[in-house]
Write a structure and sequence with these properties.
6 helices, 21% strand
């Protein structure tokens, strides 16, 4: 199903359709401030497993992230954030970054690897924000499978490609081609693991 939602003024009725899908254990393709992503409710293990099957990865080894509403939401799923790290997060979020942080006990066990870390994002996207506000908890997110292709910017093509594997494709306008910048914050200093759309300002 293709659901067209206004990117700047998301319609409440349509946002609720997406949220209802997530709450029932559905998988959606949705826009962020970078590329479109695969998403599900973090509290539905079977949905998480479905995403991992689509990606052909082990849940404990998959590069999955939590899409959070705000810093308060994000802080529930990590631990040990000191003042310098909090300042770094606050100055770059919402924005096109994925921060790798120590996972708290709130992270579902299905996703806890030996490293006990989790990728956390707060995209600057109105549709994302509206879904998260209504849902009341983060979305588990993964990139679409395969090589990054121009087809992944067009929701209608994504619908044609993934209609038999996902429950809902949200059309929030053309997607980007550049993913988020991934920053590992588990050591003494932040380390950029993947340079994407976000430019890290250490100051």
């Amino acid at each position: 199903m293709l659901l067209r939602i206004h990117p700047d003024n998301p319609q409440d009725r349509l946002i609720q359709q997406a949220v209802d899908c997530l709450k029932k254990g559905g998988i959606i393709i949705y826009p962020t401030d970078t590329i479109y992503g695969l998403g599900c409710d973090i509290h539905h293990p079977k949905a998480i497993e479905r995403i991992c099957r689509i990606k052909e990865v082990d849940p404990k080894k998959a590069q999955l992230s939590f899409i959070c509403k705000d810093l308060s939401d994000l802080s529930l799923y990590t631990k040990g954030i000191g003042t310098p790290l909090f300042r770094l997060l606050k100055s770059h979020l919402p924005g096109p970054f994925t921060f790798i942080l120590p996972a708290s006990k709130q992270v579902p066990k299905l996703l806890q690897s030996n490293k006990s870390t989790i990728g956390l994002r707060i995209p600057d996207n109105e549709i994302c924000r509206a879904i998260l506000t209504s849902l009341g908890n983060p979305i588990l997110s993964a990139s679409l499978p395969g090589e990054m292709a121009e087809e992944y910017t067009d929701p209608e093509i994504m619908q044609a490609t993934f209609s038999n594997r996902v429950d809902l494709v949200i059309d929030g306008g053309p997607g980007g081609l550049v993913p988020s910048t991934v920053v590992d914050c588990t050591g003494a200093d932040p380390v950029i693991l993947r340079l994407g759309l976000g430019k890290l300002d250490a100051n």
